[in-house]
Write a structure and sequence with these properties.
heterodimer, A: alpha+beta, Aldehyde Ferredoxin Oxidoreductase,  A, domain 1, Aldehyde Ferredoxin Oxidoreductase Protein, subunit A, domain 2, B: 84 residues, mainly beta, 31% strand
């Protein structure tokens, strides 16, 4: 390690699965300062290696596992990493973020990122044990659900402290919204990154590290970590006690709760499936991510019968009163997005079934948001008579029916029967179905919106319209949220702007200020935008589908004028042409990304 | 102060706003405020900043800040929704 090099190792692992080769890139400290991690790394490597027009599920796509310079720092919220590639769901820039321990473990193993190239002929997994990298056979793991695969991998590598990122059967089967899970209960869920991993026949990446990433100022980080734990009641009480989903009744009262494919905005029974119901009825414990005292991750456990509901420790275990489902605690529990997408938006008020649906998505490796939203879309088509039992192989796609949802999720993950079409995501189903079914879509750029209705939650409009990934709630477009994704910091920590900068500077020693931080946000967002431009997205794709132009009972639809105002303000602030949304040459030059932009240079306006 | 000059209500905070409950107290909290107090007055009394983003339930119905609270009211203040 060079003197003064903090927050990263200057080591990026490239793995070519077609050639079964690995190599190490040492891009130098300036690279880290320029790209930061996450979206910056991903967009850089896509622009560098993926030819224009490459098939996302073909050998020319790259899959980038990208922690950031803060990932692995000993401070709450530093357990995040991103995974990115060209998206098989949207056809544009794909990225999803995840928490847990895997990203920090990768950093502790001495790696800043992994870039996976090519496609293996037969299933493989990677075993990264510090410096040592092995490409191992995974034929015996192919087809296994995530829990079984992880158990086998941990046994094979002989280290119970190894961390595993992996796909389930959904990724293997190229479900276009397949996720990449890590630690069994954390997911890089959005935009189909699991399908890209499946197309590469890469089942898993197991990693074990033993060396903490050097930090520039350990004292500052220790101080902030202490501040989080000593102010838990004042700052993170709800996350600590409930995790996400404690506000669903409020969202319903305000008329912004996704209900029956985003048509109602309200569900007076939502208290049956919110985070309080989870705590009171089915929750076993709360778990943490790396270095985090907030512990906001729910773990649920449900047994099928009273006879099975005995615990080694004598604690109370929930039982499905109808004796239908067992829900394994190793798969964690549903977050807000899952409670809404697999619950209220499908008219499901059955907490056991929602937890089961969440578990299925987790062991098959699917994004709960897109899975739920695609089912909601199909159910509305069925309700309106655009789909019939003849189309679905005899399944009645009725809202309010938990058994159908559970059945469909299994069928989607395995691409069985009608699930094979639903595995394509709602936009492709609409294209196949025609008959005006696009009126029921809830997608932007092909990605199903997260569970925050933009008619009520006006603050989400920008994220949905301008995130390079499509209808994404992770604030990819803005300085605050987008930057946390880049450097590897959790959105849920109530750090103010100064604390966020303090963490970044304590990790890296860069001494950056707010302006530098904003420039990094603009640079990484512009890189991702260039990929979307290259993929054929235009200004007209920065728009909501018809559903969100319609009125809700309590809220007006978003108007075209409102959309235009948001989009144009953003284009102006980011230095993209107001009429087209394409980054200008001046902007590209000012951000120092001319080399990244070389393949699209000719299409850029001045 | 005579009892008819005050009203007794209960207040709960959900989501991010739970931090306005006293440490260790899960809520709902009992509160006495002056007769004629509005929902906004209740928030002021509890030292919740004015600009706080909240959905308000008053006896199960959506309420505005300017509604006058009555004896026995149950107020719930919800924070903005998180993702995850």
């Amino acid at each position: 390690m060079a003197m003064g090099q903090y927050g990263f190792w200057n080591k990026i692992l490239h793995v070519d699965l077609s050639r079964r080769e690995t190599r190490i890139e040492e891009p130098g400290p300036a690279f880290y300062r320029h790209y930061g991690g996450g979206r910056g790394f991903i967009a850089h490597f896509i622009l560098k290696y993926v030819p224009e027009g490459a098939e996302p599920l073909g050998p020319n796509n790259v899959l980038v596992f990208a922690p950031g310079v803060v990932t692995g720092a000993p401070v709450p919220g530093a357990g995040r990493h991103s995974v990115g590639a060209m998206s098989p769901l949207t056809g544009g820039y794909g990225e999803a973020e995840s928490g847990g321990y895997w990203g920090a473990e990768l950093k502790r193993a001495g790696w800043d990122a992994i870039v996976v190239h090519g496609q293996a002929e037969t299933p493989v997994y990677l075993w990264i044990n510090g410096d040592a990298v092995e490409i191992r056979d995974a034929s015996h793991l192919w087809g296994k659900v995530t829990g079984d695969a992880e158990e086998t991998i941990i046994e094979e590598v002989g280290d119970s402290r190894a961390r595993v990122a992996q796909i389930g059967p959904a990724g293997e089967n190229l479900v276009r919204f397949a996720a990449i899970g890590n630690d069994l209960n954390e997911f890089a869920g959005r935009t189909g990154m699991g399908a890209v991993m499946g197309s590469k026949k890469l089942k898993a990446i197991a990693v074990r590290g033993r060396t903490p990433v050097p930090m520039a100022d350990q004292k500052v980080l220790t101080g902030i970590a202490k501040w989080v734990s000593s102010t838990m009641e004042q700052n993170h009480r709800s996350f600590h006690e409930f995790g996400t989903g404690d506000n669903m009744q409020g969202k319903s009262l305000q008329g912004g709760l996704p209900a029956l494919n985003y048509r109602l905005g309200q569900d007076e029974n939502v208290g049956l499936i919110d985070a309080r119901a989870i705590r009171d009825q089915v929750r076993q414990e709360m778990k943490a991510c790396y270095a985090c005292s907030v512990r906001c991750k729910k773990v649920v456990r449900i047994e099928q019968s009273e006879e099975d509901a005995h615990s080694e420790k004598g604690e109370r275990i929930a039982v499905d009163p109808l004796g239908r489902y067992r829900v394994d605690p190793k798969y964690g529990g549903p977050e807000y997005e899952s409670l809404a997408s697999l619950g209220s938006n499908l008219g499901i008020q059955d907490i056991v079934a929602v937890c089961k649906s969440n578990e299925i998505c987790n062991y098959l490796g699917m994004d709960t948001i897109s899975a739920g939203a695609t089912i909601a879309f199909a159910m509305e088509c069925y309700e309106k008579g655009l789909l019939t039992k003849e189309d679905t192989g005899g399944i009645e796609l009725n809202f309010h029916d938990p058994a159908v949802v559970v059945q469909l999720l299994e069928m989607i993950g395995h691409r069985e029967g009608y699930g094979d079409l639903l595995a394509e995501g709602s936009q492709r189903v609409a294209e196949r179905l025609g008959q005006g079914s696009e009126a029921f879509l809830t997608t932007v750029k092909g990605l199903e919106l997260a569970m925050h209705d933009p008619r009520q939650a006006a603050g989400m409009r920008g994220s949905y319209l301008l995130a390079p990934t499509g209808g994404d709630h992770m604030g990819q477009h803005d300085t605050k949220g987008g930057m946390r994704n880049v450097v590897g910091m959790c959105h849920f920590l109530r750090y103010d702007e100064q604390q966020t900068l303090d963490i970044l500077n304590a990790a890296t020693g860069w001494g950056v200020n707010q302006d530098d931080y904003f420039e990094l946000a603009r640079r990484t967002a512009t890189l991702a935008r260039l990929i979307d431009v290259r993929s054929g997205f235009t200004r007209k794709d920065d728009a909501f589908p018809a559903r969100f132009h319609e009125d809700l009972p309590m809220h007006k639809g978003v108007t075209a004028e409102q959309e235009a105002a948001i989009v144009e303000e953003f284009y102006g602030r980011y230095g993209w042409a107001i009429d087209t949304g394409i980054p200008t040459r001046t902007t590209v030059r000012a951000l120092g990304i001319e080399e990244d932009a070389r393949t699209v240079a000719e299409s850029l306006p001045d | 102060m005579s009892t008819d000059a005050t009203v007794a209500i209960t207040v709960s905070f959900f989501g991010d706003l739970r931090r306005y409950h006293a440490p260790g107290e899960p809520g709902p909290a009992r509160l006495t405020c002056h007769a004629g107090a509005t929902v906004a007055d209740v928030l002021r009394q509890l030292r919740v900043p004015e600009a706080t983003d909240t959905a308000i339930s008053r006896n199960g119905e959506l309420s505005g800040l300017d509604e006058v609270v009555r004896d026995g009211d149950e107020l719930i203040f919800f924070g903005p929704s998180e993702g995850g």
